Amino acid sequence: MSHVPHPRPCGDFRTSYSADTSLFRTKVEGWTVYLGIFALLFTPLFFNDFYISQMILIGIYAIAALGLNVLVGFTGQISLGHSAFFGFGAFASAWLNNTTGIPVFICIPLAGLMTTAIGMIFGIPAARLKGLYLAIATLASQFILQDFFSRADWFSGGAYGSAAEVVNFLGIDLDTDTKYFYLVLFWVVVSFLAVSNLRRSRDGRALVAVRDHYLSAEIMGINLTRYRIMSFGVSSFFAGLGGALYAHYLQYVSVEGFTILLSIQFLAMIIIGGLGSVSGSLLGAIFILLLPQFMEEVASSAAMVFEGIEQSKAYIKEMSVGAVIILFLIFEPEGLIHRWRLIRASWKLYPFSH
Amino acid sequence: MVQAHARKNSWLGGVKMNWDLLFQLMINGIIVGLLYGVVAMCFVLIYKSTQVVNFAQGEFLVLGAWVCWFFVMKWQLPFVLAFIFAMGFMTIFGILVQMVILRPLIGEPIISVIMVTIGLSIFMQALMNWVFGNSAERFPSVFGDETVSIGGLQVETAYLMSLVLSLFVMGLFYYFFKFSRYGLAMRATAFNQQVAQSLGISVKQVFAMAWAISALVSCIAGVVLGLVNAVSNSLAIIGIKVFPAVIVGGLDSIVGAVIGGVIIGLLENLAEFFDGQFFHIGNMYTVAPFYVLIIILMIRPYGLFGTKDIERI
């Protein structure tokens, strides 16, 4: 990654190691995040259900994208099967709740743990493979899991899909978008906090070392197999968590939703947001979810000039996803977060930014 | 694919081995497998000479078939002329893709290169859905509908023609790489880019040529498939089927790609046969190759004919 200057305020010398690895680089950054979360608590008061539902989806996808970012961005592994794990979490949560009667609120993290186990099994090839071979192996796991969903009637309801109960928290049914919003917000905050902390822990540094130079990492005593499989586990946990939240939001899970296209969208999120960046995952999720809305607007306004473009909206939306991936990789391979850092640096260093 | 209705009836036959059906499915497997082999060759060609994994190979194939169909049906050109035009179109298309999309990414990490071809595949799929519609369209009959009897089995002429064409393309590949000047340049570049460049080979040209040849041959495979079945966007699934084939054969071996293709073609049909006769699990036709893929990756990731990658510090 190319170097972007990160100027610190005067007097911030970071004299201790712990000061250098603090959660937020500056106090302003910390307060911005706290205030942002505080402001989000009140958003349902000001926005209608459409915006709230978009925000819920952004939150859910951001959790899953965050998991993928641990795998791809931190550890440097490639996974083309993330949506299968997302789907597994969705089915697992519905299945746990339907068969054992454990409250949904608890089923959601439990589904995450079940997905972790599955992710670690499918991560075993990662112990030996890397790069392209791993991409193909995870592609295979996507198809195998998808086949499993459509076949295992006891688990997923087969072709009919399965119903997922409404989340009940302390006697309150979270059956409206507004109520569900708080549940998703809670898990988004927990996940992002967890991954930010993972990044500055011993294990997180080990993952990054594996990415940067796996041979050197091994020479320094990092157990490659363990950390590669672990990163698959962590990544699947968040995928499963996101999937479970998705299932109970829609209250219905079916096989069709978890195709390779969704896996590609998750990859697009982290590439557009910024590989290896925690906040980049959120930015990417926002970008990919708002892109179809934006293209819808564009198509509607283009319809005034070109007749009949209205009917092709669906295709234009799909094409825009592919085009955005290509354009970002060619022109901004380090993602939106890199662009933001450049803007911030040039603002802080204003008269002498070069 | 041959006489699918006959196959369905014989599923009722119970546990007894159905040798006729087995034989029929194996012939199917070889014919389809050779087509997989042709597509896998295109894939390996690009990987070997430019170190790019082309996830859009299936879309290349479908685009070639659609363009040929367009010339035949809309412009009313004779089939041969349309075929030649389509091949020309795809050659230029391949060069353009390489120059505009892949060239800026030289030297980027492998995930960027993989993602850019995935992006291309999504883009092309949506574009083709838009332009050509998402229904299957038939070519006017070119080979005729007659069937030929081989060893007591009825095989449609179209299948035989596709078999001949696959073998012809493979022969052409062999000649090109073994005896032509450009083939030699491509082999040299695949072996070592720096050395090739210092010997006066234009690596840029070689890269463009690899994409051009790959797109052209994909177009041939696409048109053949379009003649045999019908042209539709779902043919792009072959671009995914290619992965098991190339992994079994070895990612950087062209011979391996052909053999891998035939193995996967046979395997699909055999999996279907044994599943239909004995196990009744269902859907083995699509999933069995991926189980094999994982197993091969675990025990022999460089495949049957690929070069074993040895890393030194």
TrEMBL record, chain A:
Coiled coil location: none
Localization per record: Cell membrane
Bilayer topology: Multi-pass membrane protein
InterPro entries the record matches: ABC_transp_permease, LivM-like
Chain ranges passing through the membrane: 31-47, 53-72, 102-124, 131-149, 180-198, 229-250, 262-291
MF-aspect GO terms: branched-chain amino acid transmembrane transporter activity
Cellular component GO terms held in the UniProt record: plasma membrane
Keywords: Cell membrane, Membrane, Transmembrane, Transmembrane helix
Protein name: ABC transporter permease
